[in-house]
Known about the structure:
The complex is a heterodimer of chains A (141) and B (322). The longest helix of chain A is centred in the middle third of the chain and has 13 residues, at 82-94. Chain A has a three-stranded antiparallel sheet. In chain A, strands 1-2 form a two-stranded antiparallel ribbon. Chain A is 28% helix and 21% strand. Chain A has one domain. Chain A has helices at residues 24-29, 82-94, 112-124, 128-135, and strands at 10-15, 18-23, 40-42, 47-53, 67-73. Chain B has helices at residues 113-119, 168-174, 226-244, 250-256, 264-277, 282-289, 293-300, 305-321; strands at residues 54-58, 70-75, 86-91, 95-108, 135-146, 162-165, 185-192, 198-204. Chain B is 27% helix and 19% strand. In chain B, strand 3 (86-91) and strand 4 (95-108) form a beta hairpin. The longest helix of chain B has 19 residues, at 226-244.
Amino acid sequence: MVKSSYKELRFSVKKGNVRQDLNVYQLLAGLKSGERALAFGLREGAVATWYVRIRGPEHLDFPLMGVLRVELPNPSREGVSSDHINEISGALVAERCETPHGKDVRWYAHLYANFLAEQAVKNGFAFIEVIKSGLRCPKPS
Amino acid sequence: MAKKTEFELQPPAEAAAATQRESHIAEDEGGHAVADTASNARPVADKRKPTTSVIGKASATEREPNSSQKFSFWLGPDVVVNPFDIVEANQMEDTRTFGLGTNIRQITDAPSHLSNFISSDFGSVEAVPQTPRQGANVAEVSVLANNREPQGIYMPVQSEATERFADEAGIQVALGIEKIEERDSIPAGVIQMSNQTAARTYLHRDYVLGPEGAHVNISGISGLATKTRYAMSLIQSILQTIGQEKRRHMAPKLKGVGLGWVNLKVMRRTCASLMRELGVDPKVVADQLGHTVDVDINVYASTALEHREEAVKTLETALRVM
């Protein structure tokens, strides 16, 4: 699961005999809760990615809320079966109940299991200062 | 890569059955020593080691520290504890601290009820979480006693101390019953806890009958006659205990008013007869004396002399008329 949604991408989608050029907002606007969009390749097919909506937009503030983008490593660069993508998407949709609402501002696109894992990792560090110092950007030489 | 180039609709996945949390705590149900109700012998408290399984561990936090008066402990999954259950915790110097459960709370990491509502798919009552929310049941306990002699340890129960249901002997330590001499013990009923452990309880006679006499406070739900029934059972217990000990307290008083010859049976018959004269419901009289109505009326209650005379006069009057 990744949080960035590639807002700059454009999608060429053929519906019937009509081919449409859509941005990500248009692509996901009609996506209902529990549905996923088509998968496409990144990095020359080394990663398969697709969008899946785990929460309906009717309860949320803007269209991209409640939508996850999934990245699946695909070292063979061969096609990934729809069944496999559906299975992964179904498991993610099943995780929609229980949310970190009130604990994480991105609760609408954050799985509770992932939130717990993040908490466990964060709590495992002795000092937050150590992490912050490790994340400091190097000064330009 | 997916071969399809159109939108593919993925129906909502059925949520899988909630993962059952695994317990690191052994089961606590059953297997406990239960009082042998057929025996009247007082159980001997074994202070050396507990006999019940671990049901949780003490928990002290920044906001809710343990103290000399109370402590908290989290419960293992599926452990059932009710208010008024008596539990014990490992205490310093290898002793045991006993306490009375006063409240059980469930805590979760949900910051508000709204979070729970939203987590349930915005109010869907059918929603079943795949990953259960983090939470635990926490019991609040009021400290009763510690089993170190001669003076108990009343340091706060330390966090992580193991918790168990008290066994019968432990319950009696918790309630101070083990310190009551057998000759001073008045049977006061049986306590039964959530894990079915039962313990006989006793009152000290000096605090019920003797010169130090106080009172017994009975509380319960109104309208079910439970308090009344318990009071009558206790009176019966007191009467039987006094009878067994040759009316140690009552005999001198009876002798002082010239009724030294009166035994317990005469007292009971007098009691039954007087209550009948006063119009007390026969069932109540029978219950108080521990009989059926039939036995009470036919054996214990005697008809007053005045009523007999009145009956004879009525008969004579009727005969004259004839």
